[in-house]
Design a protein that fits this description.
By secondary structure, the protein is an alpha/beta fold. It has an eleven-stranded mixed sheet with strand order 1-3-2-4-6-5-10-11-9-7-8, with helices on both faces. Strand 7, helix 8 and strand 8 form a beta-alpha-beta unit. Helix 2 runs antiparallel to helix 3, helix 9 packs across helix 11 and helix 9 packs across helix 12. The longest helix is centred in the last third of the chain and has 22 residues.
Length: 471
């Protein structure tokens, strides 16, 4: 297949149609993306391990099943990549950390099993920030595979901690990937690379077989080309799991906009927050305002304020305390001194000293956050904010030199502390020609509402169809 093949940036739904029409086989599709992963993955520091033999075996099986009329759904025969904190039997799972570069966990994560059962083809373990950023990295070079490089500009950061999935999808190395978020680790790389990223409700997706950073805040979710693709992937991986007692017991099904005859007539109820627009880059601000104009075509918009609560302090305290419990052994046994980022080598020590009362108080306040934020959001399909304040910045600088992080609405801290779902989709470009994003946040269990809203936005814009020059 030619290098400029349209397959590289096709959506899951488009590739599924090509598979069923006979335009391409899973073996051809898989070989094509394996070649891209092997050739371009190192260019973006996006790949931890290419799983060629496994992928070709799974692709051959998918082709045989489809020929026999056994269709497992739209992911059947579609290649994908998994963030390297998901266990894969017989394949290294490094957690992005140099001390664990040879770690092999003798089981498959539940998410990996469910995607295999849906017929998806695992082509690669994708790079990540070491220990999912739990030791407090402050610059891009914080991974065993090197700094994550942006699909649109290799001098800029891809975002973390799901750095590999962000740049791999952005550069067309895989059609979709699985990432994880504790606080921003799906939203950031998706926003910076101009792709869609979905953070499900806490417990919607089993975390069995995934590295634990924060047991009560970690979420597993899809990163894709479109919001619709995120819904398709979530449909395959969501649901209760007896191996994860925190998983939600109620099954979930994607209410696809593409399959709904009434979708074009749906009217949404959007909320905006009291965003300090002066703290946004000028182009981010302009793109956000333009996005609101699009959303006015499909619904109403009302400005609201969140209850005055310490969202960021609660989220950071919980993460720090649970990280100390989950990963404290790496501090006490000395392996921490082998980490890639200098600040990661000492950043975890202070977490071991946080008093238990601080953690208990954070949990207590989180209960109030969940109750009061839900009451504020109950009348809306989604709260809409800029995903990030800035475009991606240079890998040569500390984050503090160029980023102002998340917008000053507290939505990110509130959503992650409360376990609320969110999705980011591209909504334009900044001054340097790098993508910006629009984020939709919903109530707990409200994935279908935010997916419908984001899909409706993408039906009226073409930012998700823009692609970078790769190589």
């Amino acid at each position: 297949m030619p290098e400029n093949s349209s397959l590289a940036f096709a959506s899951v739904r488009e590739l599924a149609a090509k598979l069923r029409s006979g335009d391409v086989s899973s073996m051809q599709l898989t070989s094509y993306f394996l070649d891209r992963l092997e050739k371009l993955g190192p260019v973006y520091n996006a790949v931890a391990t290419v799983t060629r033999d496994l992928a070709l075996a799974q692709a051959k099986q998918a082709d045989n099943e489809l020929k026999q009329g056994r269709d497992l759904g739209l992911l059947h025969g579609i290649p994908y990549g998994a963030k390297d904190l998901l266990a894969t039997r017989g394949i290294p799972t490094t957690w992005g950390a140099p001390p664990l570069k040879d770690q092999v966990i003798d089981e498959d994560a539940t998410v990996v099993i469910r995607l295999r059962e849906a017929g998806a083809v695992l082509c690669a373990k994708l790079s990540m920030v070491e220990f999912a950023g739990g030791f407090g990295y402050k610059q891009a070079n914080a991974s065993v595979t090197g700094p994550g490089l942006n699909a649109w500009d290799k001098t800029c950061w891809s975002g973390g901690s799901s750095s590999g999935p962000g740049s791999a999808i952005g550069a067309g190395l895989v059609p979709f990937a699985i990432g994880s978020e504790t606080w921003g680790s799906i939203m950031t790389p998706a926003g910076y690379n101009g792709i869609a990223g979905l953070r499900p409700t806490y417990g919607r997706v089993s975390r069995h077989g995934a590295m634990a950073l924060s047991w009560t805040m970690d979420k597993i979710g899809p990163m894709c080309r479109t919001a619709d693709d995120c819904g398709l992937v979530l449909n395959a991986i969501a649901g209760p799991d007896s191996l994860d007692p925190t998983s939600i017991s109620t099954p979930w099904a994607y209410a696809s906009v593409a399959a709904s005859p009434d979708a074009a007539d749906r009217r949404f109820r959007f909320a905006t927050l009291d965003v300090d627009l002066a703290k946004l880059d000028r182009e981010v601000r302009a793109n956000y305002k333009n996005s609101l104009d699009v959303l006015k075509q499909i619904g109403t918009i009302e400005a609201i304020k969140l209850p005055d609560l310490p969202y960021s302090a609660v989220a950071s305290t919980i993460i720090s305390c649970e990280m100390a419990a989950a990963l404290g052994d790496f501090v006490t046994n000395g392996d921490v001194w082998k980490l890639a980022a200098p600040e990661d080598r000492w950043g975890g020590h202070s977490n071991l000293l946080i008093p238990a009362r601080d953690y208990i108080n954070a949990l207590r306040i989180r209960g109030r956050i969940q109750k009061e934020v839900d009451a504020r959001l109950k009348d809306f399909d989604a709260v809409v904010t800029p995903t990030l304040n800035t475009e991606a910045g240079p890998i040569s600088q500390k984050f503090s030199d160029w980023t102002r992080g998340y917008v000053s609405t507290n939505m990110s801290g509130a959503a992650n502390a409360a376990g609320l779902p969110g999705i980011t989709v591209p909504n334009g470009f900044g001054a340097k020609g790098l993508p910006t994003g629009l984020e939709f946040t919903g109530r707990a269990f409200g994935e279908n509402s935010i997916l419908a809203a984001a899909s409706a936005y993408q039906q009226r814009t073409d930012w998700h169809k823009k692609t970078p020059v790769v190589g």
